[in-house]
């Protein structure tokens, strides 16, 4: 892959990669770093990746793996600092994000953030990014039934909670 | 495309059961983008609006430039680098073989007695020493010859005695 192909086929996926990393990491800076890392990885390993058919799905998969690596190291650091007796900073939405998003948007954001990781990934890829089931299978390295079950659970969990909130204000 | 509420409800039913296609999901997104959503679908509308909002998040314009800069720093692995790598691999292999041969030879030398080596650097001295050694061998030969002569005398005496005895026997029988 030459530089031109890289600019036309890989770089345009940057916002999708960024949103996916952001959903997983809940940190804009870290998400940006991950996307940069993905592009550098893809560029430096382009000779070995000659047979890749869907570059976007491939980049999304690398994004997922790098983000999960960061979450794991973050958890390790958190455990270490807890052992040392320090308080761990709980990452929440910044004041800017809170004002930018409406109250209902923030509520849904929290509902989705509370979903199990796999469900959160699947609902983002399908309902925000509009990927096909096959592409989601490729990105998350899951089989079709796992993807469909996770999506079904995620959508219905969010729906039930939204109904409850609107009916009883819970 | 405008849809009535019953069509939307049917489509939503399919959506919650994960039976909608991407195109049908796109129809739902477009429907909820409009402001004429009935009160009964308020929460669903919020959810679809949330998905739309999420898709607007994007990186800043300067991101591409940063990435291209980083990529320019990354040196591509060209043919020269690959060739150098192969040469280095072969050289490393040769070094291992030479070192192994050297150590094996050392071990073999240790297990066998050392070969006879030159002891004198001066040829005259070596000649003298060789003469001495040969003289010693010659003396030994001389001594051995003397002893051999004695044995010869004994043999001759024995033969003579045996000859006389035989003559006596012959005369008595006649």
Keywords summarizing the entry:
heterodimer, A: 170 residues, mainly alpha, Rna Polymerase Sigma Factor, Chain: A, Arc Repressor Mutant, subunit A, 2 domains, 9 helices, globular, B: 174 residues, 3 domains
Q: In the CATH scheme, what's the topology name of the largest domain in chain A?
A: Rna Polymerase Sigma Factor, Chain: A
Global shape of chain B: rod-shaped
Q: What's the helix count of chain A?
A: 9
Give the CA-CA distance, first to last residue of chain B.
163 Å
Tell me the number of helical segments of chain B per DSSP (H or I, 4 or more residues long): 6
- Rg of Cα set of chain A: 18 Å
Give the structural class of chain A: mainly alpha
What does the overall shape of chain A look like?
A: globular
Helix/strand/pairing category of chain B: mainly alpha
Domain count of chain B:
3
Average pLDDT taken over every residue of chain A: 84
Quaternary structure type: heterodimer
Q: In this structure, how is the largest beta sheet of chain A organized?
A: none
One letter per element, helices H and strands E, the order of chain B comes to: HHHHHH
Structure description:
The complex is a heterodimer of chains A (170) and B (174). By secondary structure, chain A is mostly helical. Chain A folds into 2 domains: 1-91, Rna Polymerase Sigma Factor, Chain: A (Orthogonal Bundle); 93-170, Winged helix-like DNA-binding domain superfamily/Winged helix DNA-binding domain (Arc Repressor Mutant, subunit A, Orthogonal Bundle), CATH 1.10.10. Chain A contains 9 helices and no strands. Chain A starts with a helix and ends with a helix. Residues 85-91 of chain A have low confidence and may be disordered. Chain B is 77% helix and 0% strand. Chain B contains 6 helices and no strands. Chain B has helices spanning 5-16, 22-33, 42-55, 62-73, 79-111, 123-173. Chain B is rod-shaped and about 165 Å long. The relative contact order of chain B is 0.03. Classes of the chains: A mainly alpha (170), B mainly alpha (174).
